[in-house]
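About this split. The held-out portion is used to measure sequence recovery: a designer receives only the structure tokens and must propose an amino acid at every position. Recovery is the fraction of positions where the proposal matches the reference. Here is one held-out target exactly as it appears in the evaluation file.
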């Protein structure tokens, strides 16, 4: 969902500005790569509470207990606000509605701290809940992408074989995992090193791919 249907970096960019005011100056990508791989992955598997993981992350970054309390309070308020005011990226809603009207079976597979029931409600608030046959969350599976079980669980929920599914994603590891699971891949808003069968510059370019065979893997 994040960075494909909507911008998932809003609170992270806000957090980096806040930490900068506290004297912590760091590179965005290296900082949040550490957060995602050393802390957030356990949250997505259901092994750790988000607040506990976030506090440990801030301690590892060198913040004092007082600074951590300040950041946690501000960040929780900001994340709650963001979740209520999230807007879809340009072209997402009309594209999904057109694909649904054309009879395309669609599903959501998300690494998330929330169960699928919460994601379903979030998609409903965004106005696209009715477009998806299945919504699958990592926390319910206790596995995260690129684990093949995630992709195959989504395929079963959609009642389709993996080789009939096109995975649309932005993360290089997740796109590679979908390919290993037997799916075709489309990259949108993607990492610089991502590999996929097709790359989109706009989400609505998906409409032109209906019924078209995907080319072999490679940037294009």
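Reference sequence for scoring:
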């Amino acid at each position: 969902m994040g960075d494909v249907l909507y911008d998932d970096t809003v609170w992270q960019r806000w957090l980096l500005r806040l930490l900068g005011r506290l004297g912590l100056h760091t590179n965005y990508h290296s900082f949040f790569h550490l957060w995602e791989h050393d802390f957030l992955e356990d949250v997505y598997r259901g092994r750790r509470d988000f607040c506990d993981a976030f506090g440990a992350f801030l301690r590892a970054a060198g913040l004092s207990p007082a600074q951590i309390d300040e950041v946690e309070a501000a960040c929780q308020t900001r994340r709650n606000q963001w979740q209520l005011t999230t807007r879809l990226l340009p072209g997402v809603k009309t594209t999904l509605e057109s694909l649904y009207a054309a009879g395309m079976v669609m599903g959501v597979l998300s690494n998330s701290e929330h169960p699928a029931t919460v994601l379903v409600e979030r998609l409903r608030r965004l106005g696209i809940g009715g477009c998806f046959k299945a919504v699958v969350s990592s926390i319910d599976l206790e596995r995260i992408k690129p684990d093949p079980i995630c992709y195959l669980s989504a395929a079963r929920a959609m009642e389709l074989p993996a080789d009939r599914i096109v995975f649309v994603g932005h993360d290089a590891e997740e796109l590679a995992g979908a390919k290993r699971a037997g799916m075709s891949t489309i990259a949108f808003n993607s990492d610089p090193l991502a590999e996929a069968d097709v790359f989109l510059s706009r989400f609505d370019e998906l409409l032109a791919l209906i019924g078209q065979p995907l080319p072999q893997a490679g940037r294009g």
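Annotator remark: The radius of gyration is 18 Å.
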